[in-house]
Amino acid sequence: MTLQAIRYQRGSLEILDQLLLPEISKYISINNTDEGWRAIKSMQVRGAPAIAIVGCLSLAIELTNKEFQSTQELKDFVVEKLDYLVSARPTAVNIADAADKGKSMIQKLIDDEKLELDEIKLKLVQEFEAMLQADIDVNKRIGQHGADYILGENNDQPVKVITHCNTGSLATAGYGTALGVIRSLHEQNKLEHVYCTETRPYNQGARLTAYELVHEKIEASLICDNMAAACMSSNKIHAVIVGADRVVANGDTANKIGTYQLAIVAKYHGVPFYVACPKTTFDPHIKSGKDIHIEIRPQDEMTTLKGIRIAAPNIRCWNPAFDVTPAELITGGIITEFGVFKPQELQKQISKILGSG
Ligand SMILES: CSC[C@@H](O)[C@@H](O)C(=O)COP(=O)(O)O
């Protein structure tokens, strides 16, 4: 059985508290957008697609339980709550994309004079609910496209890959993006080995990806972040596959801190570097990676481990949660639900994809 980070049925939302994993599997309920915002901010739920889905579902819960007197009141409430949810973490664009879609949808529904207030509310709730299944479907397509492409580049022979951070069932509605590609390779018996990086300082790799890989019985080894170069020089690695929090118009990509250095190391060793993400991770409004807002996280994520101080007292820290990988280092391509694109064709492909609705 695959891990389920998000459990939802109308009126009830629960998430697996990722702060407690891997030792404790505990679901917590999210009853409104305040609780949704706090769960995202504290990283009880994390990963670009999961943040968007949990944010929107926390609003669906609040909408289900609340009565409105007018469509204007409903619209003001939805817009305010969506803006609030987007503010929880700034780098991943998926929640901003979902918020924009929610806002234009409510306007469209209000403009439809045939619809009553309750029907408008219900349709909006249904729209947010549909994100769960849609994300799993998209991830499976990403997995298939990515696995086919990588195997095509390797004469259909089993491959060894490296991945970074957590991009699996815990970061999405299920299956995963980069980890979805790895899962798909494994399902086809074409995955010889996967190395997952520890992903300091929050340890998404050691705690979450390693947990998913063990759970799925996938051949895997954990490496510290500073072992990636040694791993590539002492093993034949066929691909590095990572996820993304925002891919901008020129193909520059923000992802978990450490992705950039992994891409540099991969280029040096001639290992193709792939980014796997859905179209909701594209941000065509930003031209280059220099303009992506990078979230800075609290210092204690670096200085302490489970509440125990591991750094010298009084040292200051710089703790950016993400970095930007320039498009030219994404040498393998960007794996989407529509296929695999080279970063230089991304701008054209994004307009084509976004134009297709
Ligand atoms: C499918 S998840 C893609 C990205 O969101 C993932 O690689 C990542 O950087 C997650 O960062 P996090 O800080 O854990 O939310």
Write the layout of secondary structure elements.
Blueprint (H helix, E strand, L loop, with lengths): L5 E4 L2 E5 L10 E3 L3 H9 L6 H18 L5 H16 L7 H18 L5 H37 L5 E5 L14 H10 L3 E7 L6 H12 L4 E4 L4 H7 L4 E4 L3 E3 L4 E4 L2 H11 L3 E4 L5 E2 L16 H4 E2 L2 E2 L12 E4 L7 E4 L2 E3 L4 H10 L2
Parallel strand pairs: 4-5, 4-7, 5-6, 7-10, 8-11, 10-15
Antiparallel strand pairs: 1-2, 2-3, 8-9, 9-14, 12-13, 15-16
Helix pairs in contact: 1-2, 2-3, 2-4, 2-5, 3-4, 4-5, 5-6, 8-9
Main location: cytoplasm
Catalytic activity: 5-(methylsulfanyl)-alpha-D-ribose 1-phosphate = 5-(methylsulfanyl)-D-ribulose 1-phosphate
GO cellular component, one term: cytoplasm
Molecular structure report:
The chain has helices at residues 33-41, 48-65, 71-86, 94-111, 117-153, 178-187, 204-215, 228-234, 259-269, 300-303, 346-355, and strands at residues 6-9, 12-16, 27-29, 159-163, 191-197, 220-223, 239-242, 246-248, 253-256, 273-276, 282-283, 304-305, 308-309, 322-325, 333-336, 339-341. It has 357 residues and is α/β, with parallel strands linked by helices. The strands form four sheets. A seven-stranded mixed β-sheet has the order 6-5-4-7-10-15-16. Helix 1 (33-41) packs antiparallel against helix 2 (48-65), helix 2 packs parallel to helix 4 and helix 5 (117-153) packs across helix 6 (178-187). It starts with 5 loop residues before the first strand and ends with a helix. The mean pLDDT is 96. 5-S-methyl-1-O-phosphono-5-thio-D-ribulose (MRU) is lined by residues 46-49, 92, 165, 167, 171-172, 177, 204, 243-245, 255-256, 321. InterPro entries: IF-2B-related, IF-M1Pi, IF_2B-like_C, Initiation_fac_2B_a/b/d, M1Pi_N, NagB/RpiA_transferase-like. This is Methylthioribose-1-phosphate isomerase. The active site is at 245 (proton donor).
